[in-house]
């Protein structure tokens, strides 16, 4: 046993009441009773311990003046113990003596730990009565002694610091019973194993008073890792904290770091996706399919789902009825009724009408956004778990087992987690769920791209844009400067080109929103589509005009051909008339 395993607070509290019931100073032939207090690093000892007592003529070195006394299996309760010691009359001849004690746990067979310092025995350690002795160190009764530090009864002693009973002692720091200490009743004092001077802890123990009033206790109980100041600041890695919590070094957070109020914000790390999530806490329905038509008489069923958010899945509800039998319910990993079981429980028999039954998951199961899980029910001879009609896929995020390909069982999942506002992936990808305001420039040094979700599977009510060119032609491009660059976050007041939101609002009101300051904001969402359709209209208009001109040209060509034919016909007739005219002239 290491020497530091015991913190020694031993005091000689009493001597025996055996032999020679005479005045103080008379020698005794019987042993005296030694009472002491044994304190361990975590508080007063309680249990069985082995002791070895030896008597010496010097407080530190010197000679042992009597054979050692062993006391094995000695009971210790709340630190207090007593032992009968008989060193003989020759050892106690009135000379100065010091008692040395070694101790070990009673169940141990190892070496003893010698406690330090040795305890001095006074001038009359074996006296039975020393009613008016000037000094009766270990007397049983020293009722009016000037000094009786370890007397069993020292009711009126001027100083009896460790007396078991010192009802009217002026000082009795460790007395077990002090009815009127220093003229005041014991109720006027707070129980304490020791006293303090300044902010230091005076001995090897820390009691309730330290923990509530002494900042130095934090450094002691944490081995110097943490320090506190009198004004409530705590430092980790620093002895001079400047903030309420001042950390100089790294902080490891296994799950979540809540920022003041979980409703306002928190930081969480998703181990499965290796992502840092900044967002707001929420609790409620994550996934559900509530359409139902029939409940087939099947003994087994399953429904997979895709978690919408990362968090703790704490409840699952399923819709059963028509007398469904008690069932076992499993939450499985992946989209399979044979996946790893993450949680399990039982559901009672269902009523004759549709009944939402609840499976409370304790402890909750951690789920990750985008990952699939399966609700698996087993209940012979039938479950009566309602599912959708199957005319359409009522829940695209999963599938039902033992039913049609587009049929899904009715269910709800409840999750406590973080609704992401910013997600930072391990590879550096950042996802922002909300608006982004940049005061300054945003650049893509590597020539990256801005992307947006555009899959037709995620869209509905798709319709063509009409009048795109007319809308664009109603807009006016301008140059401008800010009135107050600093107020809008601009770094300079260089001339800019753009549109005026007031004017745009009259043509495309969906492009304009109003900020908290009452000023209009412009976002050109869908401008590429508008420009494409405007170019299409220009092309169509140009192409239509060309077709019209081509038609007119073809018409003119046709008319020209017809004129040429008419001209040729007239020329032929003219030639005949001239020929007839020539013949008539010859006849004349």
Please give a handful of descriptors for the protein shown.
disordered N terminus, seven-stranded antiparallel beta sheet, 588 residues, alpha+beta, Jelly Rolls
What Rg is obtained from the alpha carbons, in whole angstroms? 49 Å
Got a strand count?
A: 30
Distance between the termini: 168 Å
- Proportion of strand residues: 25-35%
Task: Give the % helix.
Answer: 10-25%
What class would the helix/strand composition place it in?
alpha+beta
Task: Return residue spans where pLDDT drops below 50 for at least 5 consecutive residues.
Answer: 1-30, 123-146, 149-153, 173-177, 189-200
What overall geometry do the principal axes of the alpha carbons give? elongated
Number of helices: 5
Largest sheet: 7 strands, antiparallel
Average pLDDT for all residues: 78
């Amino acid at each position: 046993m290491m020497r530091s395993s015991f913190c020694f607070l031993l005091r000689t509290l009493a001597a025996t009441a055996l032999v020679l019931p005479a005045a103080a100073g008379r020698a005794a032939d019987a042993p005296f009773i030694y009472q002491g207090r044994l304190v361990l690093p975590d508080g007063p000892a309680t249990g069985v311990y082995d002791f070895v007592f030896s008597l010496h003529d010097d407080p530190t070195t010197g000679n042992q003046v009597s054979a050692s006394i062993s006391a094995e299996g000695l009971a210790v309760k709340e630190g207090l113990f007593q032992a009968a010691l008989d060193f003989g009359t020759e050892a106690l001849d009135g000379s100065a003596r010091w008692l040395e004690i070694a101790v070990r746990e009673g169940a141990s067979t190892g070496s003893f730990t010698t406690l330090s310092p040795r305890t001095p025995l006074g001038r009359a350690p074996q006296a039975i009565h020393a009613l008016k002795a000037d000094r009766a160190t270990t007397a049983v009764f020293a009722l009016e002694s000037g000094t009786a530090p370890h007397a069993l009864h020292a009711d009126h002693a001027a100083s009896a610091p460790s007396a078991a009973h010192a009802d009217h002692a002026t000082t009795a720091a460790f007395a077990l019973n002090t009815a009127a200490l220093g003229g005041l009743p014991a109720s006027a004092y707070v129980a304490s194993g020791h006293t303090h001077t300044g902010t230091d802890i005076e001995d090897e123990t820390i009691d309730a008073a330290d923990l509530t009033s002494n900042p130095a206790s934090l450094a002691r109980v944490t081995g110097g890792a943490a320090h506190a100041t009198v004004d409530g600041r705590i430092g980790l890695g620093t002895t001079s904290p400047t903030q309420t919590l001042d950390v100089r070094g790294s902080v490891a957070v296994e799950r979540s770091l809540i920022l003041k109020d979980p409703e306002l914000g928190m930081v969480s790390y998703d181990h499965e996706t290796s992502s840092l999530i900044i967002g707001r806490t929420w609790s409620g329905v994550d996934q559900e399919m509530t359409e139902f038509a029939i409940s087939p008489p099947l003994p087994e069923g399953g429904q997979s789902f895709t978690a919408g958010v990362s968090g703790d899945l704490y409840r699952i509800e399923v819709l059963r009825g028509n007398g469904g039998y008690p069932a076992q319910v499993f939450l499985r990993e992946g989209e399979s009724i044979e996946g790893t079981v993450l949680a399990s429980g039982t559901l009672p028999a269902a009523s004759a009408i549709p009944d939402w039954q609840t499976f409370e998951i304790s402890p909750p199961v951690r789920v990750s956004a985008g990952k699939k899980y399966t609700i698996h029910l087993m209940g012979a001879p039938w479950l009566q778990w309602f599912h959708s009609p199957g005319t359409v896929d009522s829940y695209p995020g999963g599938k039902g087992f033992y039913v049609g390909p587009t049929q899904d069982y009715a269910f709800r999942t409840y999750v406590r987690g973080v609704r992401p506002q910013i997600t930072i992936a391990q590879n550096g990808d950042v996802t922002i769920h909300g608006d982004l305001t940049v005061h300054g420039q945003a650049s893509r040094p590597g020539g990256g791209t801005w992307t947006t979700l555009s899959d037709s599977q995620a869209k509905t009510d798709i319709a063509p844009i009409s009048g795109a060119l007319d809308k664009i032609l109603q807009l006016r491009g301008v140059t401008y400067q800010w009135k107050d660059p600093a107020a809008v976050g601009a770094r300079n007041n260089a001339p800019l080109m753009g549109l005026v939101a007031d004017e745009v609002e009259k043509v495309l009101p969906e492009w304009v929103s109003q900020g908290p300051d009452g000023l209009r904001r412009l976002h050109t969402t869908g401008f590429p589509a508008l420009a494409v359709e405007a170019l299409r209209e220009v092309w169509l208009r140009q192409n239509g005009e060309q077709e019209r001109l081509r038609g007119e040209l073809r018409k003119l060509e046709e008319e020209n051909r017809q004129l040429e034919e008419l001209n040729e016909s007239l020329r032929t007739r003219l030639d005949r008339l001239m020929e007839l005219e020539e013949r008539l002239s010859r006849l004349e």
